[in-house]
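My main concern about presentation is that the manuscript never shows what a single data entry looks like. The format is easy to grasp once an entry is in front of the reader. For illustration, here is how one protein appears when written out as sequence plus structure tokens:
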Amino acid sequence: MLRNYSNSRTLGDNIRLGTLTAFTAGTINIASLLIFLSFTSNVTGHYAILAAEISKGNWTQVAVVGGWIFLFFFGSFVSNFIVINFNKKSKYFAHAMPIVLEIICLLFVGVYGQFYYQKTLEETEYLVALMLFATGLQNGLTASISNFSVKTTHLTGTTTDLGILVSMFTQKKYRRNGELIGRAKLLMSIMLAYVMGAVFSGLTYYYLEFRVFYVISICLLIVIGYDAYKIHVRHFNTKYRYNRIYRKPNIFAYLYEKIHGAPKKEKKRKLVFED
């Protein structure tokens, strides 16, 4: 999900990344709505609130909402900054780091909310700001590494794109286009995962309350852990194959044979004229 970059990504990479991160985005959005009465996975509504507060001359609220919008923007900026500056050194590190930062932000919200939250307006504004920064990190990362194919924190563009694709599928020539079919599958999986995350959050919040952010963090850890597992298993198998080809023992081959058993050696067959 995180190892590949831009055009080297497969449809499967994007679907796996899109579904897991969309599920977390839907969970975050409904949790923040129930707790703070504010959406935190997108800033479309906040722009409308910003304009309304400017027209009323409530400059304190203008500063607060403007800060929220900026933090979502800054989260996207930080994600792409990490990706483009560390991508050559380690794609996995560059792509995992924004997710790690998001997990830290969400864990802070969960811990603070569970043990210290006094339901004051100032606390609410700061926690909403932190969650907007976290979702900005996520949206910036998924868009950056997928060449803008995957955006999971809001569904406005996703619904628009899917509507366009469905209208195109009314003609046979487009229904035979594998790229368009793959794009439709990706968008539908993102929409379904987002809704499932929102429903899950709504059903479990009254039992978990702020602990729902721990569940979200676990989902994001799965995103990181999946690629870490793939990278290490691939490295493990490569070392094993190296040993089998060049007959040079190493710890990887030893562990592999302990787990799977040593391969049976085939007896050398003799040719008829050798008897």
Summary: The longest helix spans residues 212-246. Residues 252 and 258 are 10 Å apart (CA to CA).
